[in-house]
Write a structure and sequence with these properties.
Shape: elongated
Number of strands: 6
Number of helices: 8
Order of helices and strands: HEEEHHHHEEEHHH
Structural class: alpha/beta
Radius of gyration: 20 Å
CATH class of the largest domain: Alpha Beta
Oligomer: single chain
Bound molecules: zinc ion
Strand order of the largest sheet: 1-3-2
Helix content: 40-55%
Amino acid sequence: MVGELFRSVGREHGYENIEARFYPFKEFKSTWCRSGQRAEFRVSDYLKWADDFVLEDFARCLFGRISNRWRREIYTERFRTWLQSDEFILRNRPTYLERSRNLSLSPVGRVLNLCEMRTSLREKGLIEDSSDAFLSWTVSDNVHRVGYCSVIMRVIAVSSVLDTPSIPDYVAEYVLYHEILHLESGHGSFSAGHDREFRAREKLFPKWRDADEWLKRVASKKA
Ligand SMILES: [Zn+2]
């Protein structure tokens, strides 16, 4: 099915020998190798729920890239709409969470509750409604990567290293805030960058300077 579709799009691009199959990558991504007229694709299996039109758009987008015409994937409106739909999240997020080995799968930590923090950020007027995002602590105490956000799956993780009485609550809240900003700013572009506007919003957090200091200390394991 996915193979047939890729073959027909591939022919339009001059490829005679195409293979494509779904592959259970954790992140939403696809890979390919190509030699001459032959190309072999591993397509994220999160796409297996997509209809043929969406899948065809995606195939065109990949062939655009492998022909070196585009620097990065440029998604069509139809594809973006599908990727941002509630249905996409509903069908794929459980699988994504299963594949995320380092998540406790709960917002309730030893000391802190990420859902309460989110409510508090909302009440302070710092964030919009992000109640559809799944919040979780990590299992291992990551010190360098203290927060993680999948914009596509709407999943945020905060490192359990911050879930301790010896570090002030606002440090974890600041990390959560940072990741929620990614959700809010990445919705249209799926980019994970920290542009000027992102940095400006980040500094609206009342104790951002102190929180930054704490995070440096945690990273150097002095905390
Ligand atoms: Zn970031």
